[in-house]
Every structure is written in C-alpha cells, then in structure tokens.
C-alpha cells in the first residue's frame, strides 16, 4: 500500500471518529434535563416563541433527524449560543482558542525537545545518565500545581523576573492569527514580543514538565534497546562514534514508541491546560470551559469538547503519519 | 609471525554479572596471518563472540568490564587504545558481518547508503554489491532491507564489510560472527564460497566464528577450538579434524550430526494404523500490505503418519513445513483439505524450537507437568510418581522437578518440554526444529532421546527440520518440502542413497559435512 493510500485510509477513519464523537456529545446533551429551545428563547418566552426556537434547532423531529440537523449546524460552524456570555459559542471559542493553542504548541515543542535531550543523554551509560534518570523520576512525580506555585514564588515574588499570570494584553497585537508570538513577529514589535515570551515561559514550562519526562523515559528505553541491536553493532564496527551512530541509526529506529507517547502526552496537555490556565490566569479555552461547567452552559461545554476532540483526532493522525514516514516497513511492500 | 594482521595476547575479559565477576575469556592468545581464514569454533558461552568483539574494539558491558592483555589490529591497540584510533582502524582495516541478516541492517536506511556508510562512493558501493553477488545492484541499492531475502541481506552486509573508508580499499581483516547460522543450507553454501573468493581476490584475512565444525571444514585454513573462555586446541583444519588432540574437540566431532553419519538402526515398524492423515491440505494467508490478496503457503499436501513411525519433513525456511505442523496440531485450520486424527491417537503434542520460551517461566517443572497430568485425568495422588517417571524418561534428575525454567540449561529445558508433552500419553509428538537452538553436543542427545522414546513407547513422531543430518539420525521416512509442496518422499535409506528430485540433491550437496576433509 502506498503512502497516499495509507494516509487516505487514516483520514477516512478520522472522519468516522469525529462522527461518533459528535453523536456522543449530542446524545448526552439530549439526555440532560435541560431544554436548549428554552435556553435560546429565554425564560419568559411565549409558547409560540418556544415552538419557533424548537423548530429552528430542529428539535421537533425524530432523534436521528435532530442529530443530522445538529451535524449540519456544526458543519456551518454553528455551535449554539452560550448562556453565560450570550455570544455564539463559535465566536467565544474563536476568542479563547488561540491563547490555549499558543500555550499548548509552545509547551508541546518544549516537551519534545526536553524529552529528546533527556532520552538521548539517559540512554548512555555513566553518571550523567544516572542524574538524568533521577531528574526524570523526580520531575514526573512532582504534582503540576505544586511546581507551578513554587516557580511563581521564586520567579515572580522573590526575583520579580516574570509576571504572575495573563498573556500580557497591554502591548500585544492580536492580528492576524491571534497567536501572539507570530503576531508580534509579523509586526516586528520587539517589546511586545519580549512581553509575550515573559508571560508564556512559566505556564508553558509547567505544562511541558511531566510530558517531557514521559517522552524522555520512553525514548531512553527504546533508544537503549535500539543501541543493543546488531545493526548498531554493525554501524559501530564501521567506525561510527556513539553520537554519530545515535544520529544516523539510533534515533530514527527508536522514535516510534516515543512518538506514540508524545501524541498521547500532547493530547493530555490539552486537557491539562485547564488547570494551568486557572493557575496562571491564562485567558484560554480551559478558563472558558471551567466557567461553562460552573454555569451548566451546555452549548459551550459541547463546543469545547468537540474542538478538543477534533484536536485529539488531528494529533493522532499526525503521529500515525509520522510513524509511516519514519518506518519504510509500514509503507513499502515486501 | 611478526607480520600478523591481528594479534591477541593473554587476553582476559571479565564481566560483572549483577555483582559477581564472570570471566568470558581466560587468557587467550591468537595471531591471524595476512590472507588467512581462521575458524573459531565453540559452543554457546565459549567466549568466541567476545573475542570477535575485542578484535573490533567493541567490548560490551560498560565501565565495569575489566580487560587485561593486548589486542592489536594493524599495530593499534583495540582494547586499551584511544577511541579515536580504534575508530580509524574500524573505518579502514576491519569489516564485520554478524549472524542475523534480518537484524544486522538498519530497517530505516536504504541498502546502498548502508554499504557506503564509511564514506565510499556510490560507484564503489555498486561494485561491492556486484562482487558479493547481489543481482541487479543498480536497483537494489534503492531498496529497503525488508524488501530483500535473508541471503541477499547477508550479501549486503558483506558488501558493507568489504567497503572500507579508504577509496577502493578492502579491510585487512573481516570478523564474521556466525554469518551463515540463520541462513538456509543452500544459501549458507553460497555465502561460504563468497568468503573464500573474497580472500582469494583481495588477500584479506577472515576470522570465521562458528559453532559448526562442518562450516569450518569447508573454508578454514586453521581451526581454533574454544570452550569456557579458553583455547582448547588449534592447528591446520585437516589435522584438527583428522587427529583431534584435545578431549573437547573429540567430543565435538563425535557428537556432531553429519549427513555422512550412520543411519539409525532399522526399527521394526509394522505398517500400522494411520494416526494422522493430512489430505490435500491447502493453506492461504493474507498477503502482507495487500488487503484482500492471499498468499498460498501449502498447495495440497498429503501426509500419512503411521503408528510408531518417525516421519521427518525437511525443507528450507518459508517452505510451509511449520504451517503444516501447526495444522496437524489443530492450531491452524486448513483453507482446503482435511486433517484427521483418530480419537484413539489422542491429541497430538507439540515441541518447539525455543524450549525455554515454551515453558511458563514462573511455574516449577513439577507444576507444569502436574497441570498436564491433571488435564489428562491422572488422580492427584498418582501425580508425583508420574512426574518422577516422566522426568526419568527424558533423562532429568527427579530433583529438578522443583526448578523453574530459568534455572535449567537449554538442553534441560527441551527435555522438560518433552516430558510435558508426554504427560498426556499422546499417540503423536509434533516437533518443530526441536534441536536447532541447541549446541551440537546437546542436539545429538535430544535427537537420540526422541528416538529412544519412540522405540520404547511407540509414540509416532512428525518432526520438522531444515537439517538433513538431524533427519538422517532419527527418521524412518523423510519427506522433502519446497514451496508448499512435498517433492520427494521415501524411506530414509532411499533418500540418502538415491535422491530422485533435483531439489533433494541440491540440499544434500549444500549440507556441510566433515566427510570430505576427515576421511
């Protein structure tokens, strides 16, 4: 099976997962004792207005048709209206998503780099590897919120180097992408860029910490196994040094399991960002979601769940595709 | 020999095995002359691979390994010297070929790039592949390792080993660690001849590490016999094989199963009832990476196994012999045809190649045997006596009942596995390469044990092997398989005296034998 064909089949299964996800979200929403029509029309609406709202939402039809109606609205980007903010959920998500995206992407990159360094150093024999293993275990077992508070005490209260929270709205541009790092680069605004980075450092670091350790541990053990194989012995017998052999043969062969765990970890980060956003007053989807949960704002919750679900599926797809790219045995026929 | 390519002097290598020191080499000295092929022969654990790794300067075990003595290649110290010098020697003067061609090439790197790893040009890689007998090297250079057969992969490995950094240079020493053990006999024969040709064309020395005196006999100028970290005997090949001096060498020679060995004493097998009948068995497997497509591995095979006889299926890897055995055991369903075992014969029992992994690691031998006895309906009070009896039958001490598999040697594990198979008093034992993973001395014992059991208990044997020498020692009848078909079948005497099918003849010719040298 060729590469394209395999990717096509992954995309198809990805769409299938999304349909199941939206169905589950809709089903759960309908089971709850809350009437979206009344939410839309308002508490004091007349029976006629209520019926109109019901028709508008497609709630006057059999369940499956209702679902397809809902799916149709989703495809048009209509996620309903939030009772808390009284805005369209999609526009709320448009406001909050970039902040979360920026945090998770930066933290994800940090976790990958950290995991790579920890994994490669840890794979070699010697005291440095021992130290790295110790740090990995310690880092992975430290609770996120404790580390966050500790870092805040040191870098905000005592040293005063970094801000306590927020994204640094005062200076920053938020066009064209909403991702401040990129927006400020586009506008060549050095001061705003520095402010953005200062605000990002702590939350991204805390969010990246435990995933970096997890990726590092998996990469370390898989790299150790790879470095004990005959093809690595062959490469060493041809005069390659340890770093050269790791680079040419070790990493690519050891990367598979590390990629799988990285995919899981980045997905978990999306969920984990809820706590981090609260700790650092980060104006992102996590804060929006926790407000929505507190106010039983069903449309908002469903909207965020669908966006996060879509992100999970996308990450899984990216990881699968990378696996096919690094291992020729998965794509080229025998 | 002052001009030796490699010189090993009083080499001692001591590993740390979870706290206890273990001496893999106990003061070994060896010189290899230019253009010489030295065969280093020994059983597993003899230290022969450690010696090869020392020559390459790749001693495993980390910082707790202690090495004394000297290893010099081209005048450079390969154990104590600076890493930079060792790497230079490896790039220019050494080549290495390892046992398993499936794992000794990087699966994520194209073949050509691996051959050129030491910086040779593409043209040089092409020449090396051509020289090593890789057909259509211009295309193959772009292949991934998994797209090549085992034999071709080993040729690629050898091409990489002879392509030194120095343009046009061929290493002065090639260390080949069991380079043919994982290959079929016909391919093994070709690879051995390839090594001989490389020596003749380039004058490079070869250290051939092998467990098989037969392979050594085919090619080596000199044989060095090792056991337990010491050299027991060394000398010119013909001398060592004809007039072995050391008791250990004699033992190796005597126990070796050889196709020139004697036939087993004729056993009186009365044309009995069939205990297993396979008729027109066809088996398809889904083709890898091709959804919906099938690959046919058995094309209508007939097998009739009679009570008390020993039928050996001989064939190379991929011929379908193991699949056939699994169908006979009821572990696979045939796509077409029938597999019949009359109820009286009982459920056939299987014995596998890797005995240790076929035993449950956390259960004592006693529990594993008792479990089978319970399943066979033996009352609880009778089981201890039966366990002792079974262990006695396979030549294990009754005290070993309390042991767990990891406390037993490979040979003892296989005996325990045979005892477990016998627990239900089966009419048929199905054996899949039962001695391929064992050292020569043990292999002969286990083959003889199976033969004795058949003669004493009347159990029928259906045994699968790639090794005609094993077949000769134990078979009453031999069936030769290739490409999912039985191409020749007959009594053991007939197959060896007058093979009819060209494939059988090829197998016989390619099987390494001491007969040519030792007589």
Automatic annotation (TrEMBL), chain A:
Q: Name one Pfam family in it.
A: BPD_transp_1
ABC transmembrane type-1 domain sequence ranges: 97-323
Query: Main localisation, per the record?
Result: membrane
Q: Which residue windows are coiled coil?
A: none
Species whose genome carries this gene: Winogradskya humida
Q: What is the name of this protein?
A: Peptide ABC transporter permease
Q: Has keyword Protease? A: no
Cell membrane in keyword set? yes
Tell me how this protein sits in the membrane.
Multi-pass membrane protein
Looking at the UniProt entry, the stretches that span the membrane are 7-28, 103-122, 134-156, 200-219, 258-280, 300-322
Question: What are the entry keywords?
Answer: Cell membrane, Membrane, Transmembrane, Transmembrane helix, Transport
Which domain of life does the UniProt lineage start with? Bacteria
Its family?
Belongs to the binding-protein-dependent transport system permease family.
Q: Record's InterPro entries?
A: BPD_transp_1_N, MetI-like, MetI-like_sf
Q: Where in the cell is it found?
A: Cell membrane
UniProtKB/TrEMBL annotation, chain B:
Write out the annotated subcellular location.
Answer: Cell membrane
Q: Which PROSITE patterns match?
A: ABC_TRANSPORTER_1, ABC_TRANSPORTER_2
Question: Which EC numbers does the record give?
Answer: 7.2.2.11
Q: What class of enzyme is it?
A: translocase
Give start and end of each ABC transporter domain: 6-253, 276-508
Question: Is this entry keyworded Acetylation?
Answer: no
Membrane topology, record value: Peripheral membrane protein
**Chief localization class?**
membrane
Q: Which InterPro entries match?
A: AAA+_ATPase (IPR003593), ABC_Ni/Peptide_Import (IPR050388), ABC_transporter-like_ATP-bd (IPR003439), ABC_transporter-like_CS (IPR017871), Oligopep_ABC_C (IPR013563), P-loop_NTPase (IPR027417)
Query: Which UniProt keywords are listed?
Result: ATP-binding, Cell membrane, Ion transport, Membrane, Nickel, Nickel transport, Nucleotide-binding, Translocase, Transport
Write one Gene Ontology MF term: ATP binding
The family database entries (CDD domains) matched by this protein are listed as: ABC_NikE_OppD_transporters
Q: Where is the signal peptide?
A: none
Task: Write down the chemical reaction(s) this protein catalyses.
Answer: Ni(2+)(out) + ATP + H2O = Ni(2+)(in) + ADP + phosphate + H(+)
The annotated subunit structure for this chain is: The complex is composed of two ATP-binding proteins (NikD and NikE), two transmembrane proteins (NikB and NikC) and a solute-binding protein (NikA).
Name the protein family: Belongs to the ABC transporter superfamily.
Q: Mind telling me what this protein is named?
A: Nickel import system ATP-binding protein NikD
**Lineage, highest ranks first:** Bacteria, Bacillati, Actinomycetota, Actinomycetes, Micromonosporales
